[in-house]
Amino acid sequence: MIPPQARKGAMLPLAVIDLLPLGAVLCKADGALLHASPRAIALLGMEDESDMLAALQGINSGAARPTPLRVTRHELPDQHQTLYLIEDRSAELSATNLRDDAWRALSHDLRSPLGAILTLTESVADGTLPPDPQTLQQVGHYAELALARADGVLRLLRADALQPEQFEPVSVEQIAWEASDACWKQARDRQITIKVDADAASDDALVRGDVDALRRAVTHLLENAVVHGPANAAVELSVEADNSHWRFVIRDHGNGPDSIALSVLCAAQRSGRPRGLGLAYVRRVADQHEARLSCVRDAEGFCVKLELPKWPAERPHP
After folding, report:
1. What is the C-alpha to C-alpha distance for residues 267 and 286, in angstroms, rounded to an integer?
2. pTM of whole model > 0.85?
3. How many whole angstroms separate alpha carbon 301 and alpha carbon 229?
4. Which of 16, 40, 217, 307 could form a disulfide with 247 if both were Cys (CB 3.0 to 4.6 A apart)?
5. Element (H, E) at 217
6. What CA–CA distance (Å, rounded) separates 120 from 115?
7. Could you give the CA distance from residue 135 to residue 129 in angstroms, rounded to a whole number?
């Protein structure tokens, strides 16, 4: 712990430092710790003086493991002190990723269907194509594709704007059955059977979250299994539990997404250009709900798990 007597040597008003929105750590010229604000202690996750100084130096030098924290050092020569300001950049990084995904969709994913619509309408206008039902059907197809991709961008924006403090209890059993209902037509078209096993769930099978976002995330994972798995097969959606979490488990008998798409879904750092707004949306929703995503590809097929803390969350005894 920081020695109380050391705090008295600080020449900046500690009350002001403690009110800063950034974490603040004040050190003497010889590197000894004078004061750390409550925000700094929370961001670094430690109170021990030596551990805190080592963490600051590691983040500042880039030697530490990847972290959303950014540390800036400010010399205070008149006081013979050094002030470290700690900024949590996780929200900034999330906004940057969201901007990149949205820009990619708007500049690339929408360009193809809109270009096709323009080509078709120009061809009808100059007589190259007849204005028959087949041409109109093609225009309608590309219009639906453009709308779906635009909706994907909007979903990303909504996911990033979720407010965890407004989350409410959500039934995992309800989400499982509603996701199955939403995928029923696609499954029927491919002659796929969706098997739902929610026996582990009960009236008190609740997680804390946004019901619409979680329903859309689970539905998208199930849709992926139905659309990309082998036809005339089965897709399983089960609800499992342990002492502290509820878990959605979705298994198909195909190969699953490729490595780049999986990096969007399950990896903290992307391994290449993101592929699929739907997977990016699932990743966003999972992050906002402090959920864990994991994927397994084995001889039986592909399995993805979405694990969320139970409601009410288990809290350690003081």
Report:
1. 12
2. no
3. 9
4. 307
5. helix 211-228
6. 9
7. 8
